[in-house]
């Protein structure tokens, strides 16, 4: 079930023209990664909405320096933290994630990390991450807290995420 432009604009009032840019890539990514029910879509849209500032950012605003030498992210070489900082609508971080994306989706983001900033790739890698982390099943159970922890590692921005989720549920159900 595709999300309509009017629905996405209601969920993300700050997105403005970005709704037009991301509507088709988001619908295609949701189809590809089985984010295909209102509950799944509401949870996915809410999470990417928070992570991307309502579609305004496809690259983390911070430098990425905090991720240097984070072996849990696969950042083992000097400069990996900055090079593989959060990208895509869900802000995928770390060399190991970029390598897995390159393998699974055929996007040469290890060599050219900026490829994850294009609308199609930003949406697609976010859907990939979502499905790979088992988040469809959690969305089916309305376990939004666990979804947030799997994306963020904690509950940063929980209030904003939940607000977006409730708006998305109201629009999509």
Number of domains: 2
Number of strands: 0
Please state the overall shape, judged from the principal axes of the Cα atoms: globular
Distance between the termini: 12 Å
What structural category arises from helix and sheet content? mainly alpha
The multimeric state of the shown protein is single chain
Mean pLDDT: 97
Largest sheet geometry:
none
Residues in helix, %: 40-55%
The helix/strand series, from N terminus to C terminus, equals HHHHHHHHH
Radius of gyration: 15 Å
Strand content bin: under 5%
Tally of contiguous helical segments: 9
- Ranges with pLDDT <50 over ≥5 residues? none
Can you put this structure into words, describing what you see?
The structure is a single chain. Helix content is 55%, strand content 0%. The chain is mainly α and 173 residues long. It folds into two domains: 5-56 and 119-172, no CATH class; 65-116, Endochitinase, domain 2 (2-Layer Sandwich), CATH 3.30.20. Helix 1 packs antiparallel against helix 9 (158-172). The longest helix has 15 residues, at 18-32. It is globular and about 45 Å long. The mean pLDDT is 97.
């Amino acid at each position: 079930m595709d999300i309509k432009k009017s629905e996405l604009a209601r969920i993300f009032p700050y997105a403005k023209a970005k709704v037009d840019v991301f509507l088709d890539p988001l619908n295609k990514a949701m189809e590809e990664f089985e984010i295909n029910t209102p509950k799944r879509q509401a949870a996915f849209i809410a999470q990417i909405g928070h992570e991307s500032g309502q579609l305004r950012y496809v690259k983390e605003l911070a430098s990425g320096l905090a991720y240097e030498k984070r072996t849990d992210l696969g950042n083992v070489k000097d400069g990996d933290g900055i090079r593989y900082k959060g990208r895509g609508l869900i802000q995928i971080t770390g060399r190991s994630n970029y390598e897995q994306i390159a393998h699974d989706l055929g996007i040469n983001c290890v060599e050219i990390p900026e490829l994850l900033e294009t609308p199609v790739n930003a949406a697609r890698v976010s859907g990939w991450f979502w499905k790979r982390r088992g988040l469809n099943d959690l969305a089916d159970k309305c376990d939004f807290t666990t979804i947030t922890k799997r994306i963020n590692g904690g509950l940063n921005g929980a209030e904003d995420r939940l607000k977006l989720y409730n708006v998305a549920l109201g629009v999509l159900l």
